[in-house]
Write a structure and sequence with these properties.
The protein has about 575 residues and is mainly α. The chain has a domain of about 350 residues: Orthogonal Bundle (Vanadium-containing Chloroperoxidase, domain 2), CATH 1.10.606. About 45% of the residues lie in helices and about 5% in strands. The chain contains 19 helices and 4 strands. Strands 1-2 form a two-stranded antiparallel sheet. A two-stranded antiparallel ribbon has the order 3-4. Strand 1 and strand 2 form a beta hairpin. Helix 3 crosses helix 11 and helix 14 crosses helix 19. The longest helix has 29 residues. The chain is elongated and about 75 Å long.
Length: about 575
């Protein structure tokens, strides 16, 4: 069953880059028109449903060559179905839909079976397909050692280090219950260190942001170096030693002992450089209370954020304890990886609460984000639960890393150096996007829909009679304990989707996702899959899930997505360039 009705497919057709070219609108033009489109959301449920999804028109994707170091140069990566090509007779897990040019094929379960003499590429591709397609069976309670890449991890077969260590970091983030911005920081530490270690062994094909990293000793193992670098750098971000994971991985390598030893020494040296450079980035004192900072002056206006006490609640699902202050108030002051000032990517002001534009956003969330909404469709409800990805799993940045890993392995022409570079670029873009988003959140300090609808609406003096207090209103999902504007989910999604679009030279890709984790909504998400035909479509659904869940305003998504995409373009063009 498709995830969009025919009407909703028509609404989203402008996300297609081909349609964007035909329309003659540029991305900038479309973005500037977004706020006007939101203001057109109508009063009837039918009109609201037809108009509420952003009709963003993207400029046509211009084909450009990808300069690959250590790999064949490609003139263009043709948009293609991402599942299963190249697997041969290898079985794939359940819940994995395979799209080919001739149609959709369901693949058999891999459970309980073993590969028979698989090639390394098909083994890794199958492993990553398991990660993306069978995650419903891989989700586990907090504290479990269950792998996101299925039970294939640690079975004695050699995994490429980028896949193995991505899985280790996912598990560490899950087990420590880190929120998305701190999770992105972990991924950036690890993936950047891993890339720099391999880059040094490959002769420094790409420029390093840290000039003290020289060239590796001759004969060093790239895989051992990657493992050592990630285990040192990610351990710093997680504040947890990863020595046993490193031992477990190195034991599987078939390379000569001397090569492994050289790789480990080199990787440790690189990991320590990243560790030393980033230890003072401001990422650790996140528990400081921004409202007690002597240099901070609260706005104290009617649209200022405040905790919704006695606790944040939703109509269904888990309850969380009371919060005395906002979460991660100083994260926006952390030093980004790829730029100097958080103000380099400015955000437009939030709509005036007296304006008609805000009134339409208020009505949108009040009607479609309530736990007992009568206008939100069943599909939109599923979207809200599917993308929640709170701090008891790998979190929302993990989606884009898994997708990047799978696509590179499915297309089969990327070296370890190139794979590790994409993971580093993705992680840095999402980490820096999170920093910029949290800086905006606490700088502009905009209240959540829950506060506005249940308590503050009467103080807005908005002339629209629909902007009024509703004491009985509750959001569908739990309201996070920090300001609304801009949406972190949308910033991560925009950064991830834009980076993948730039890397693969196309926005078009067909893929099907299963839930990353089943901790918060185990009964609602078992067996659920979501299918997409482009990176932008997935990012849009990710962002709108927060409006359907009742925890964000439409402007939070629109401008968070734009911020994430701008940062991804900056990272792609300027970070880790050819030397």
């Amino acid at each position: 069953m498709g995830i969009f009705s025919a009407e909703r497919v028509r609404e989203r057709r402008e996300c297609d880059p081909v349609a964007g070219a035909a329309s003659g609108l540029t991305e900038q033009t479309a973005y500037s028109a977004d706020r006007g489109r939101i203001a057109s959301i109508g009063g009837t449920a039918a009109t609201r449903t037809r108009n509420k999804v952003r009709e963003r028109t993207l400029a046509s994707v211009v084909s450009r060559p990808l300069a690959l170091c250590g790999a064949k140069q490609l003139s263009h990566v043709t948009p293609a179905a991402i599942w299963c090509r190249g697997y041969g007779s290898q079985a794939l897990p359940t819940n994995l839909s395979t799209r080919r040019s001739e149609g959709i094929t369901s693949m058999a379960s891999l459970e309980g079976e073993h590969f028979r003499n698989p090639s390394r590429r098909s083994f890794i591709a199958g492993t990553l397909a398991t990660a993306l397609g069978g995650l419903a069976g891989c989700a586990a309670p907090v504290g479990s050692r269950r792998s996101y890449f299925s039970d294939l991890v640690g079975t004695g077969s050699v995994l490429e280090p980028d896949a193995f260590w991505t899985d280790v970091m996912f598990q560490g983030v899950r087990d420590q219950k880190l929120g998305p911005p701190l999770a992105a920081r972990v991924y950036a530490f690890g993936h950047l260190a891993g890339f720099l270690a391999v880059n040094g062994i490959e002769g420094g094909c790409y420029a390093s942001p840290y000039p003290e990293i020289a060239t590796a000793p001759a004969g060093a193992s790239s895989r051992a170096a990657y493992a050592a670098a990630v285990s040192v750098a990610a351990a710093e971000a997680l504040q947890t030693p990863l020595v046993f994971d490193r031992i477990r991985y190195l034991k599987q390598l078939p390379e000569p002992g001397e090569s492994i030893e050289k790789g480990v020494r080199w990787g440790e040296a690189v990991g320590k450089v990243v560790q030393r450079r980033r230890t003072i980035d401001g990422g650790h004192p996140e528990k400081a209370n921004v409202y007690l900072d002597p240099n901070y002056t609260p706005r104290r206006t009617v649209d200022s954020w405040s905790l919704t006490l006695p606790h944040f609640e939703s109509g269904v699902g888990p309850r969380f304890p009371s919060y005395e202050r906002g979460a991660l108030p100083n994260l926006g002051n952390m030093q980004p990886f790829s730029f100097d000032s958080k103000y380099e990517f400015p955000t437009p002001p939030f709509p005036d609460v007296k304006s008609q534009e805000f009134a339409e956003e208020f009505v949108e969330v009040h009607t479609s984000g309530a736990w007992n909404s009568t206008v939100r469709t069943e599909d939109e409800t599923q979207i809200a639960f599917f993308w929640e990805d709170g701090p008891r799993g790998a979190t929302v940045p993990a989606w884009w890393l898994l997708l990047g890993l799978h696509l590179m392995n499915e297309r089969g022409h990327y070296s370890l150096l190139e794979r590790s570079r994409l993971l580093a670029l993705l992680s840095v873009a999402m980490c820096d996007g999170g920093i910029a988003a949290w800086h905006t959140k606490y700088d502009l300090d905009i209240l959540r829909p829950e506060t506005a609808i249940r308590y503050s609406a009467s103080a807005f003096c908005n002339p629209d009679p629909r902007v009024k207090v509703d004491r009985h209103w509750r959001s569908l999902i739990v309201t996070p304990p920090f300001p609304a504007y801009v949406s972190g989910h949308s910033t991560f999604g925009g950064a991830g989707a834009e980076m993948l679009k730039l890397w693969f030279d196309s926005d078009r890709a067909e893929f099907t996702l299963s839930p990353l984790d089943l901790v918060n909504w185990p009964t609602r998400l078992v067996g659920v899959t979501r299918s997409f035909t482009s990176f932008t479509q997935a990012a849009e659904e990710n962002g709108w899930s927060r409006i359907y869940g009742g925890v964000h305003w439409p402007s939070d998504h629109l401008h968070g997505d734009a911020k994430g995409r701008a940062i991804a373009r900056h990272v792609f063009q300027n970070y880790l360039p050819m030397a």
